[in-house]
Amino acid sequence: MLSPVALSIIRNVFDDPRERARAIGVWGAAFGVSMALGPVVGGFLVSAISWRAIFLVNLPIAIAAIVLTALFVPESRAPHPRRIDPIGQLLVFVALSTLTYGTIEGGRLGFGAPQVMLTLGVAVACGAALIAYELRRREPLLEMRFFTSAPFAGAGATAVGLFAATGGFLFVNTLYLQNVRDLSPLHAGLYLVPMAAMSMVCSPLSGRLVGRFGPRPPMVVGGLALAVGGLILTGLSAATSVPRLLVAYVVFGMGSGLVNPPITIAAVAGMPPAQAGVAAAVASTSRQLGATVGVAAFGAVLGGGVVGGFGPDLAPAARPCCWIVVFVGLVIAALGYVTTTSWARGTARRTAARLDG
To answer: Cβ neighbours of residue 91 under 8 Å, at least 6 residues apart?
Structure first.
């Protein structure tokens, strides 16, 4: 609930496109750094206190969110409240949960197992039913007409790909650092600090680049950086040097920081003000979907390559995951180019006109 609303607030508070791009860059820095700092903070809490302490962290964060919202966030509402869509929500829940479960179990049992095929079949059926149902509603939970805008559709695909790669990359490397390099949770988290630092530096920079040159440069360069970060680790082994690991983490963090802000900017490009908040919320949800499916998918790939749990033989099993990161990075770079062409901008204008109508 917090994440989509945060983007809607930015969209309503900042009217000037350049200022909005910079604000989204700052938001993107916070979002990216929060993911990259998770292993660091989690490692410290596990090492210094207990694994149970990772749940207590939610309390001060929630209190701070409530207090800061009450003090600083202006109220904003749509012209009329949207109706609740319980059927759409149920279909989304079942589709995503069965997709995640089927992906995890597919890595353990094989994707030809009857229960895995059944679970993934339910996910596909619910997805198809969701599209058919939402197209008939006047106020749908998910506005399917958004996807006729190439920048919006590309932003959603980029969000899923980026956060699938980020979530999976963090998951695989955290296991590698602890199970293969025998690092403590805290030290494994510290190895990943360069990734968080570069994400924090590059996200505001990306917002400024978008404000001046548009979303294409940071998306293309960022996608290529993600691919290079994954490529560096495609030969991962127990003897991989520490400098090589750190260079990969730095380059990957740069790519993540550059790509994240343009996702939201592209998603709301050309959208009518009344619809921009919903469009931003869909982009934000795509990030969360990507992170969830990414961890499940990378875990399935990793689990299929090791025997008897994640032990010292994990490094060779992690190499296909690194190649997946390379592929995702190249796709993001291609999407960054295609969705910023004059053809793509034309589809955004026509979508906005239909939504206004």
So the answer is: 126, 127, 129, 130, 133
